[in-house]
Structure formats: structure tokens, C-alpha cells
Amino acid sequence: MRAFALLGLAGGLLMAFCQWLVYVYAPVEQSMGMVQKIFYFHLPVAWWCFVSFFLSCAAGVLWLKTRRPKWDALSATAVEVGMVCATLALITGSIWARHSWGAWWTWDPRLTTTLVLWFIYAGYLALRSMPLPSGKRASMCAVVAIVGFLDVPLVFLSARLWRSIHPAVFAAKGGGLEPQMAVAVIASVLCFGLIWAALIILRCRQTLLEAKLNEAAAETAPDESEAGEN
Q1: pLDDT by residue (tens digit) across 4-37?
Q2: Residues whose CB is less than 8 angstroms from the CB of residue 85 and which lie 6 or more positions away in sequence, other chains included
Q3: How many CA atoms lie within 13 A of 126 on its CB side?
Q4: Which of 131, 143, 168, 221 is 20–30 Å from 159 (CA)?
Q5: SS3 state at 33
Q6: Is 134 left (phi over 0), alpha (psi -120 to 50) or beta?
Q7: What 3-state class would DSSP assign to 29?
């Protein structure tokens, strides 16, 4: 719990500092103006979304190998946090697209593959909520987490495999960032990383405690029914 508190505090303080970096230190982009500032939020949540799904995939593999509840809890936690990040990435990306492209959504390869990724892990959460035996449900969810992660490399490669108007394509071709912008980006990624780690630790502990409470309730249920019959 102390680690969670320290990470959350550090992330909150760095978040406050990032506001100064983003709105004061980093220059305003010439073509997009102030709307470009959303980039400093959009990029970190997108990156940590991918890290979350990688963590879920790795934990899923460890669950299938060891059958230890902690890996199942970690996999589920990573998907929950990753879905929050993925949703925020899609929302902020749409706001940015509205100003840059004149439309809230285009079927750009990177946007489309990201949306597919969102639906895959939305299916994971739906499967997670189904009334199945805990072991069977954990195994099925682990398989979905592993297979779903295959879409993450496709998200990265989509802009190069197909024609894309995503800003990342132009940055990869040498557009680059001003030094002040790069500092703001790095600080924002680190800031969200600290908050992400705090959320992972907190939610994983909650999931493990919930599982223990459910086990305890299942063990005491027969005793209560027998007492009622007597």
C-alpha cells in the first residue's frame, strides 16, 4: 500500500509540473495552434494502453503455466487499466482529428486497428463478467489476452503497411519535435507511467482481496444452509 501511495503522490506532483511544461514551456505548434497540446495527453495514454495489454498478455501466459491466482488478477487488472487508457486515446484522438482533418473519425489504418484492439479487450471484460467456474474463466480470459495482443504490433505497423494520414507517419519521416516539446512529451509519459503503476498495484490488490472474499463466502455458504435446516 505504501508503494501505491508513493507512486500516486509522485505522479500527481509530476502531473502538476507537466501542466507548466505543456502550456508554458513547450511552444505552440504553428499549423495546429493550441489544439496540438492535446498531443501531450493523447500520446502517453496510448503508450500505456499498449503496455497494459502487453502486461496482460504476459500475465496470461504465466497463469496458463503456473495456475497461480496472482497472475490471473494481474492480467485482469492490466486489461481494466488498459481499456481506460485505450478509451481516452480514442476520445482525444477524435478531438484532435476534428481539428486536423475536419472529421471526428476516419477509417485510417492506425485508428481502425486501435478500435479493433478496443473491441477485443471489451470482449475480454465481457467474458470476465460471465458466471463461469473461476479456473475455466481465467484460462479463457488468458487466451483472449494473448491472442488480442497480436493486434498491438499491427497498430504500430499499420501506418507503414498501408497509406495513413496519422501524424505519427510524418514524425517518423523526419518531422520531429522541438526540444522543448520533446521534454514535455517525455515528462508526460513518465507522469502517466507513475499513475498507471499506482492504478495497477491498487486494482490488483483489490482483485485478489475480492477473490479471497468470494472463496470465504463459498466455504461458509453450506454451513449457513445446514444451520437453517436444523
Answers
A1: 788 888 988 999 999 999 999 988 877 777 888 8
A2: 45, 46, 48, 49, 52, 196
A3: 6
A4: 143
A5: strand
A6: alpha
A7: strand
